[in-house]
Amino acid sequence: CGTGKYLKVNSQVHTLGCDYCAPLVEIARRRGCEVMVCDNLNLPFRDQGFDAIISIGVIHHFSTKQRRIRAIKEMARVLVPGGQLMIYVWAMEQKNRHFEKQDVLVPWNKALCSQPLSESSQPGRKKQCGHPERSHPYHPPCSACRCPVCFKGRWDSRRPHSVDCDSALAGTCCANISKEGEEENGFYNTLGKSFRSWFSSRSLDESTLRKQIEKMRPLKNTESWANSTISTQPSRHSSFDLDHPEPFSTGEQNLDEEVFVETSQKHLEWLRAPATHKHLNGDHPRGVRRNGDGNFLGSTNTKENCMDAGNLEEGTPSASKIWRRISAADSKDSNPGDTISVEEQQSDILDSGAFMRYYHVFREGELYGLLKESVSELHILSSGNDHGNWCIIAEKKESCD
Amino acid sequence: MKLLTHNLLSSHVRGVGPRGFPLRLQATEVRISPVEFNPDFVARMIPKLHLVEVPKEPIQGYEHDERFLRQMHHVLLEVDVLEGTLQCPESGRLFPISRGIPNMLLSDEETET
User: Main location per UniProt (chain B) (predicted)?
Assistant: First the structure.
């Protein structure tokens, strides 16, 4: 359930929110939701207790097919016969974003949501989460001008704090954001989100991911981190199209964006760094792996690089140092044993508290196939694509005894 | 944690199965929070409850007994356990409730999988 954004969308149903993460659940609780901390893989419920279940942007975080199946089977178990389950997962196929592989790490920068709960620049609006009200939901870079500071979309009209939220807020492009960005923090907020949108993560297949995680586990300080690397490639835009917000339309992606509240000045400078851009495109940062990764901003990505827009003027050359690499791209070509020494300041990104979140992005038909072949207790009612998510609605079959 | 929620919970400690229900509730702090009374909702929820001891002859016409429905409403929805524990009746394993939130996470060794 995360912070509970979907728990109150329908006043006609009694909901129970569940999440593995206690701090998120605390936030949902503060918003007045009935919630608990538990594990999707071992739901602490008796069989057949629920009429309906939604799983929005959850199972794509499970790192193996077996775990994903287990999560779905657990939800099916606790459904009454005839009860329905709706699942949303990130699609690999995205309009404005390119996933190299299905198993990816996406950065989540804690520094970008540093505001404590008590601060709010807009009294009167209920808090969504542990962030000030001036934190806006994610706005993708505007596709018109490719400017990362100019965003499509507006305040998320699905915000549960106002169920009948103004749908007129769903707007487009720069004009809206400049209004939002009038306050200084609004501008930084959107930049922060753009910053995050830069990263379409380097893909990792499951076995190399496992190896990499094993390797990283003992690393505690930034000096150690300097020896391993994360590769990220900027995405052209976010994958979100907020022109027509719909319930659940961005699924869990919305949650990602919510936490990207503000960017620090450091990151701000980094974004305004055409010098950096050149560096990244032109040179390989020291020790870049050769086999297939090449220049991770490589030619296929140059046009996707937001900086290409040339909207960013002055800058610091520090961005290249923020790029780090995970030495595992392709299990055939990659040598997971390679570590690359990074330039000194590459620890910047870690200083700011960057975390990575694992996603298994789904191909078309994959979610459908998964239910069909592995969860026979569910009958599929409908499936489709919704704003970069594959979604499915299934019904618990009547028992056959 | 509402008592309606409690009725859904079951211990998933490995090997326990259906004997994990119901969890023994010990409440050290309880709050009564008013919730709007919806008789239809309460009436529909009652048959969904998993009652360990079911009366041989269920009360006829409970759906129209407002006093009964109000009592059930109060018990199921308005009693909020803020602090306490839930105990697996089979294994004795304790799950904490803090700030109204039950934490049902088990360690890897304890779980079914």
Answer: cytoplasm
